[in-house]
Design a protein that fits this description.
The structure holds two protein chains of two kinds. Chain A is mostly helical. Chain A folds into two domains: 35 residues; 237 residues, Orthogonal Bundle (MetI-like fold). Chain A contains 14 helices and two strands. The model of chain B has no long low-confidence stretch (mean pLDDT 89). Chain B is elongated. In chain B, 23% of the residues lie in helices and 35% in strands. In chain B, a hairpin with a 2-residue loop joins strand 1 and strand 2. Chain B is α+β, with helices and mostly antiparallel strands. Chain B is built from eight helices and 21 strands. The chains are: A mainly alpha, B alpha+beta. At the A-B interface, helix 8 and helix 9 of A face helix 2 of B.
Chain lengths: 285, 358
């Protein structure tokens, strides 16, 4: 019996171990080693922290770094604001008959790739796009306006891309909430606002935290949406990493940036969990 | 005593089906009032209208003379203990009880004092910091009641709060709840489908069926003098016979469909022919001498003995028919020798044979 249990453990453990080791740990170690090496004046590879020094010296890197952090937090927050009423409506307001149908409607856009969805936004928003066509045709504006390639459209695209990852954990955590909690709070004298802040949000906290972590990480590491919807000025940190690896062919510098991004995301999530008094394993379970 | 709750001609229907059908009643200050009925009789709907979660189609609800129509649940002086208790899982015991007090904008010191005083009343002293999930079923029950009682409502509504407990605990909570109600003196309106809960705890019980009250009375009267055949069959155990009226004068007689004649007491005056006869198991006297007046006599053939301690009954065929009746055995072990197949003479007094329109 014991032997079988052990065998079962190894059968399940070995693939996970291999996956973690070969695809995550090994490349990370390699990247780390790469990041603390650079060419000296003679073109020889030596150990040095100059790649990290470069990041602190060059203002544009700093600026991008902070900008991406702030925008990712903003996108996470906006995604929550947009999806929470939807999740609440589907789980608590609408008749259970339509629950499944509405959930499928919500998930359907995510059956197509991110690229296609972003392209859809571009068709709508670009200078020769659908919205401009109607605005000009009906005489609301004289000349088409460029609605793409600014921070607003980029944030909108990022929120749109992230919605799925927020709405699914919210749906499942609100689904588990018995309506009687809301009624009991109402009966005990709570207003709608108090019910929302003291009962609904704390109940859904685990879902909110796990959704937020996923959305934050995906936004921070997103490349496609800032590039396509934010245009040349989007300044996303992943683009800097891409540039170092692909354009400048400076793998050592790129590796250092990659590590800094990892530290940044871990730090912000840690602070976020501390501030909201949540627990990572509880949120993800 | 003044009435704390006055309900007049209250009506509610869902999609054309009448759930609560013109009910009027009043509940006195400090009373333990139960609404007893089978599931689907509309009792929960009635309770939710009093609590304010549902708006009645017609009629009025007055609490201490104040019309409640159009007032939302958080503004009504009533509190509801939910069937599933609905204790907030993200708060500890103290926070749960303090929830309503915080909404009343009491100072932190006052809240703390009230919470600990309330916990003392429900015998959970010092449980403030305990997590709700760690409580036993009975403790959760008491926290839920404390959470509502601490707000000192005019009326405490309880929606089958003992339903989820196991039998032993339910028996215990029944007594505790009754004691608690006497101690705090709050008016309780208690909803249940369990007749024993209603009979044990209540000052008065309303028996509800198909959206209407069949009878509002004390537990003793409900059991002893049921006014309708529904009450007679729903409250307490009973033996039912379908019968036809054969003689209607000062000594009415019926004949059951099995062909047994009974002298009966007619409860419904307008019985013409078909009626239902009800006889309580404990009203049947075993081994009687056939010389008393106003008694019905018959033979019983014991089919089986349903042993249940002090509540032991026998299941017997009456007068060699297939009809089975239940007879309570006296507790003096006089009939300990009774076995399957034994034939016993038995009798029942006319006043214990009650006939209703069927």
């Amino acid at each position: 019996m014991n032997k079988h249990a052990k065998l079962g453990f190894y059968i399940f453990f070995i693939p996970i171990f291999l996956w973690l080791f070969l695809l995550i740990i090994l490349p990370q170690i390699d990247l780390f080693l790469m990041s603390i090496q650079s060419e000296n004046e003679t073109g020889k590879m030596v150990w040095s922290l100059s790649n990290y020094g470069e990041f602190f010296k060059e203002e544009i890197y700093w600026y991008t770094f902070i900008r991406v952090a702030i925008y990712s937090i903003l996108v996470t927050f906006l995604t929550f604001i947009v999806t929470f009423p939807i999740a609440f409506y589907i789980t608590k307001v609408v008749s259970p008959k339509y629950k499944g149908f509405l959930t499928i409607l919500l998930l359907m856009p995510f059956w197509v790739s991110e690229l296609v969805r972003i392209y859809g936004w571009m068709i709508l928003l670009r200078e020769s796009g659908v919205i401009n066509y109607f605005l000009v045709n009906y005489g609301i504006i004289d000349k088409p306006i460029e609605m793409l390639y600014n921070d607003v459209s980029m944030v909108m695209g990022l929120v749109y891309t992230s919605m799925l990852f927020m709405v699914v954990p919210l749906l499942s955590s609100l689904e588990g909430m018995d309506d009687s909690y809301i009624e009991a709070a109402h009966d005990l004298g709570a207003s709608k606002f108090i019910i929302f802040t003291k009962i609904v949000i704390p109940y859904a906290a685990a879902g909110i935290v796990s959704g937020s972590i996923v959305v934050f990480m995906l936004t921070l590491g997103n490349y496609l949406t800032p590039k396509l919807m934010g245009g040349k000025n989007s300044l996303w940190f992943t683009e800097q990493i891409y540039n170092e690896f692909i354009s400048s062919f400076n793998w050592n510098q790129g590796a250092a940036f990659g590590f800094l991004l990892l530290v940044l995301s871990s730090l912000i999530i840690w602070i976020g969990l501390k501030l909201t008094k949540q627990n990572l394993s509880k949120a993800l379970s | 005593m003044d009435s704390v709750l006055e309900i007049e001609n209250i009506k509610k229907s869902f999609t054309g089906i009448k759930i609560v059908d013109e009910i009027s009643f009043s509940v006195k200050e400090g009373e333990f009032f139960s609404i007893l009925g089978p599931s689907g009789c509309g009792k929960t709907t009635l309770l939710r209208m009093i609590a304010g979660f549902l708006e009645q189609d017609a009629g009025s609800i007055q609490i201490r003379g104040q019309e409640m129509t159009g007032i939302s649940p958080n503004k009504r002086p009533v509190n509801l203990v939910f069937q599933n208790l609905a204790l907030f899982p993200m708060m500890d015991v103290g926070e749960n009880i303090a929830f309503g007090l915080k909404r009343k904008k009491l100072s932190a010191a006052q809240i703390e004092k009230k919470v600990s005083a309330m916990l003392k009343i429900v015998h959970l002293e010092g449980y403030e910091k305990k997590s709700v999930a760690k409580l036993s079923g009975g403790q959760k029950q008491r926290v839920a009641i404390a959470r509502s009682l601490v707000l000192e409502p005019s009326i405490l509504l309880l929606d089958e709060p003992l339903g989820a407990l196991d039998l032993k605990l339910r028996e215990q909570m029944k007594i505790e709840l009754k004691k608690l109600q006497i101690e705090v003196g709050t008016t309780f309106i208690y909803i249940t489908h369990d007749q024993s809960e209603a009979l044990v705890m209540s000052d008065r019980v309303a028996v509800m069926n198909n959206g209407k009250f069949e009878q509002i009375d004390t537990p003793e009267n409900l059991y002893g003098n049921p006014k309708t055949s529904f009450v007679a069959s729903f409250v307490g155990e009973t033996n039912r016979f379908e019968a036809k009226l054969t003689q209607n004068d000062t000594h009415p007689m019926v004949q059951t469909i099995e062909g047994i004649d009974f002298s009966v007491t007619l409860i419904d005056e307008n019985i013409k022919e078909n009626c239902s006869l009800f006889v309580r198991p404990e009203a049947i006297v075993l081994m009687v001498e056939e010389n008393m007046e106003d008694m019905n006599y018959f033979d019983l053939t014991v089919k089986t003995i349903l042993f249940d301690g002090s509540n032991t009954k026998i299941l017997a065929n009456i007068n060699d028919t297939e009809h089975e009746i239940m007879v309570a055995l006296p507790q003096n072990r006089q009939f300990a020798h009774v076995r399957k197949g034994v034939s016993i003479k038995a009798g029942v007094h006319v006043s214990d044979c009650k006939c209703y329109l069927s």
